[in-house]
Design a protein that fits this description.
Helix 15 packs parallel to helix 17 (about 545-550). The protein has helices spanning about 50-60, 80, 100-105, 115-130, 220-230, 255-265, 265-275, 290-300, 305-310, 320-335, 340-345, 365-370, 415-420, 430-435, 465-485, 495-510, 545-550; strands spanning about 1-5, 35, 40-45, 65-70, 135-140, 145-150, 155-160, 165-170, 195, 210-215, 235-240, 245-250, 360, 375-380, 385, 390-395, 400, 405, 420-425, 450-455, 495, 560. The chain is built from 17 helices and 22 strands. The two termini are about 25 Å apart. It has about 550 residues and is of the alpha/beta class. Strands 1, 2, 3, 4, 5, 6, 7, 8, 19 and 20 form a ten-stranded mixed β-sheet that branches. Strands 9-18-10-11-14 form a five-stranded parallel β-sheet, covered by helices on one side. Strands 15-16-17 form a three-stranded antiparallel β-sheet, with no helix packed on it. It binds NADP nicotinamide-adenine-dinucleotide phosphate. The site of NADP nicotinamide-adenine-dinucleotide phosphate has 27 residues, from helix 5. NADP nicotinamide-adenine-dinucleotide phosphate binds near residues 89, 219, 379 and 527.
Length: about 550
């Protein structure tokens, strides 16, 4: 028995039956939701970020039944949670947009080159409204477990609200950076003031006026928020363990001419993406720019195109000489901007190649250290020993503060998947299958977990490319795969262990050809104590072409049964 009736797809013939419980605002219908195995849905989608929204749209468009589940109270994924001051996209906003619908593209006008978090959240909301996606989601609901029932060949997903939903396919659109590390430092629970973690920021603006503030961490989240906090606070202490490379955003309003030019080129841009989006362009093996050419290229790092400017320096993450020149260029800019040479030196990254930890894109990061009310605390010189009731204690001294901002990063790429109890064949857990690090086929599927797909999973380019268009590519591929299963009257599709082993080896080989393994980054799991150190994103060339070839060859590497 199915209680209540599941959603029907938009294009399905006949009247649409909408579950009254699929959106909290829709009605006061009963929870928990139960979708039993004798009348399962076609799909469950976990996550209402950009991956989950588009997945749900495509499933419904294809006439399939779907239930979405989202822990947050509304759509937006990472942009719903990360509300800290200064939160912005580090990909230009015109590119950080869906490409599947030219009409959607026309219907939205970004105001700035790098959009703010509120504007991106408004965009997600606009998409949800336009395609009426909210009614497919249970919001404020966290998936606790997903279990593959081998007899029924179905996934059974349970939530923290007691829902139990049976579905043929389970799609994890749970994001790459969605499990923030709290302030997991000794004594944090004793601090008498508020602690705000950037990835779980309060919905009401935090007023730092007159406050002494500790910011812990110097990744993108701290680099974006500190300059704005410093404008309000009495004093800001920035606790830095590893200095980061940051490039100027040179943010500005987008002109009508820029929008018109982008829209005019939109079909060509989409064509480019569809033709195969490389994670990182690889120039010819004999590419060897002269010193002069190289210096001209690296000057582009300061042109305001942030992360895109990194790929304009070919072989940056593959050739030590090229990287050295580019990194020296950035180091020289830091020395120019920061007036106190001792502070400048502390802010200068010297122990990993440029681009091998995610570079940041900032507005006033280095400049903020010229302010009298900002102090850089080098915790390599004197490590943080504890959080005390009054503030932060390092090996050298106590820093009394009123507020602590935790900007200590995320359990990236695997965290969101592993905090659910996902069990595939023989009741084997994902935690067990990934005990030595994540293993996937194409970053899309996992051997032993039939009909489970991951959107931008480990083993795909994901965080090394434009995540939004990477989500689209994955969703489109998953939709074709589901169509293939259904077209063959089959019930399951599963990556073979051999194909998965070969892909994992290939992902590692490609990473080993680069300088990435030289950095203790979150790409490699180095930021979470005890996490297996495996380079997780795919850095090889022609990823989309490979995925399409697998499909064109009849889903080689998958068992369809
Ligand atoms: P992050 O880059 O992982 O930075 C975390 C910071 O916390 C690092 O500086 C780290 O130092 C420090 N830290 C961790 N544990 C510490 C400890 N025990 N003591 C002292 N310091 C400690 O995290 P994030 O800034 O949140 O950014 C993560 C990713 O999210 C980014 O790389 C980016 O992909 C994405 N993001 C994007 C944007 C955007 O512009 N759109 C904004 C924010 C985040 P170590 O380096 O020494 O480990």
């Amino acid at each position: 028995m199915v209680l209540p009736a599941p959603l029907k797809g938009d294009n399905e013939a006949g009247e649409e039956t909408v579950s009254a419980t699929t959106h909290p605002g829709a009605s006061a219908a009963a929870r928990p939701v139960r979708v039993d195995q004798d009348a399962p849905l076609d799909a469950v989608v976990v996550g209402a970020g950009f991956g989950g929204l588009y997945m749900t749209h495509r499933l419904r468009e294809a006439g399939l039944t779907v239930q979405g589940v989202e822990a947050a109270d509304d759509v937006g994924g990472t942009w719903w949670w990360n509300r800290y001051p200064g939160a912005r996209c580090d990909i230009p906003s015109l590119l950080y947009s869906y490409t599947f619908s030219p009409e959607l593209q026309e219907s939205w006008r970004w105001s700035e080159k790098y959009a703010t978090q509120p504007e991106i959240l408004a965009y997600a909301s606009h998409v949800a409204d336009r395609f009426d996606l909210r009614r497919s989601f249970l919001f404020g609901t966290r998936v606790v477990s997903a279990r593959f029932d081998e007899a029924a060949q179905l996934w059974v997903v349970t939530t923290d609200k007691g829902d139990e939903i049976a579905a043929r396919f389970c799609i994890m659109a749970t994001g790459c950076l969605s499990v923030p590390r709290g302030l997991d430092l000794p004594g944090a629970e004793t601090f008498e003031g508020p602690i705000h973690v950037t990835g779980l920021w309060p919905h009401q603006p935090v007023d730092f006026t007159g406050k002494r503030v500790a910011v812990i961490g110097t990744g993108s989240s701290a680099i974006q928020s500190t300059p704005l906090i410093a404008e309000q606070a009495q004093h800001v202490y920035v606790f830095q363990r590893t200095p980061n490379f940051s490039l100027p955003a040179l943010n500005a309003p987008i002109s009508d001419e820029e929008v018109a030019a982008f829209r005019a080129n939109f079909p060509a841009y989409v064509e480019l993406l569809r033709s195969g989006q490389p994670a990182l362009p690889i120039p010819p093996a004999d590419y060897a720019p002269s010193e002069e050419e190289l210096n001209a290229l690296v000057a582009q790092l300061w042109n305001g195109w942030g992360l895109i400017s990194l790929v304009q320096v070919p072989n940056l993450v593959r050739d030590e000489r090229i990287n050295q020149v580019a990194a020296d260029f950035v180091r020289a800019r830091i020395a120019e901007i920061v007036k106190d040479p001792a502070v400048a030196e502390k802010l200068t990254p010297r122990d990993f190649p440029l681009g091998t930890k995610r570079a940041c894109v900032d507005t006033g990061w280095y400049e903020t250290f010229n302010r009298d009310n900002v102090t850089l605390v080098d915790v390599r010189e004197a490590p943080i020993e504890a959080i005390t009731p009054m503030g932060v204690r390092t090996a050298a001294q106590d820093y009394p503060v009123d507020v602590i901002v935790g900007a200590m990063g995320f359990d990236a790429m695997t965290g969101a998947l592993l905090r659910m109890d996902i069990r595939g064949r023989d009741g084997r857990s994902l935690a067990e299958a990934w005990a030595e690090g994540p293993k996937t086929y194409l970053g899309l599927a996992i051997a032993g977990f039939p009909n489970l797909f991951t959107v931008t999973g480990p083993g795909s380019p994901s965080v090394l490319t434009n995540v939004l268009t990477a989500c689209e590519q994955h969703v489109d591929w998953i939709m074709e795969a589901i169509g293939h299963v259904q077209g063959r009257q089959a019930r399951t599709m599963e990556a073979t262990a051999e194909a998965q082993e070969a892909w994992v080896a290939h992902v590692n080989d490609e990473a080993d050809k680069t300088l990435f393994p030289q950095a203790a980054s979150w790409y490699i799991g180095a930021n979470v104590p005890g996490k297996p150190r495996v380079f997780m994103p795919y850095v090889g060339e022609g990823y989309k072409i490979r995925c399409d070839a697998v499909a064109a060859d009849g889903y080689v590497g998958f068992a369809v049964g």
